[in-house]
Amino acid sequence: MKEPSYRVVRVFNNNAVLVRKDEDELVVVGRGIGFGRRAGDRIAAANVQRQYVEIGHDKAQYLDLMNSIDPRVFEVISTAVDLAVDLLGELHPSVYLLLADHLAFAVQRFREGAVIVNPLLGEIRVVFPAEFGVAELMLGYINSHLGIELPTDEAAFITLHLNAARTGSTVKQPLQQANVLGGIVEFATAWLGSPATSPTVHDELVGAVARLASRLKSGAYRVNLAARSIQRDLPQETELARQIVLRILQVEQLPREAVGEVANLAVFLHGWQQDVNDTKNI
Prior knowledge:
By secondary structure, the chain is of the alpha+beta class. It has helices at 57-67, 71-88, 94-111, 121-127, 129-146, 152-167, 172-192, 199-218, 227-233, 235-249, 259-280; strands at residues 5-13, 16-21, 24-29, 42-44, 50-51.
C-alpha cells in the first residue's frame, strides 16, 4: 500500500511548509520538514508533526499576498517565526501564515515612510511578558537582517499574534484584553489628573491593575484589615479603586469580599501618584 504524502507548494522555512493534499492546501509543521525542499517535492505523511486546517476561500487571500512578498523578506520573517517557536514552544501552525502576512506588510509600510504606533504598547508588554520578550528578539532579528528599524510598537503587534498562536485563539482576544486594561488605566489617570510621565511609571499602574484583574477573576481576593482607616485617610483613591474593581467585575454593587482589594489598590494609587509627581520634578 502506497504511503500517504503531500506535495510541496511553498516552503516557509525549515520547519513549516505549504502543501497540497488531493484538492486541499494546508500548512504542515515538523522539525526540519522544509529543509532542502522545493515546490513539487513530496513529503511523507509520517514526517508531519502537525497540520493546519485546509486553506479555504477565506484564507486564500493570504496565499496570494505571500506570493507577492519579496523572497528575502519572506525568508527573514519565517526564520524569525522559527525563533519564536524555539523559545515559546509549540505554536499553532497558522502563525506561519498570519504573522508572515502581518510582518511583510509592516516592513512595506516602514519602507514607505509610515510611522508605526501601538497605543496599547504598555498594556501588551505587561499582560503578555513572555510573548513580548520573544517579539522583541524577533524584531531585532528582522531589523538587523533587513537593514530597517521597525519600532518597539511593532513588537506589541507581534505579541498579539504570538499569544493567539499559543492559546489557539484569534488575535482579537488578546487585543480585547489589552483594550479593556488600557481603558481602565486611562480612566484612572484621568480621575487622578496624573498622566504617567514615563513608560516605567505607566507600566507600574498597568501591572497593578492587570494583577488585580487576574485575582478578581480567579476569586483569590486579598484581605486588608485596615480598610476602614484607608477609606478615611484616602477617600479619593478609595473611590477610584472601588470604581476600578466594579469595572473589572462588571457589576454595579461592590461585593463584600472585594473591600480588601479596594483598600490595597487605594494605597497603591496613593504611592503611584507620588511617583508621577516625583518624575515631573526630575
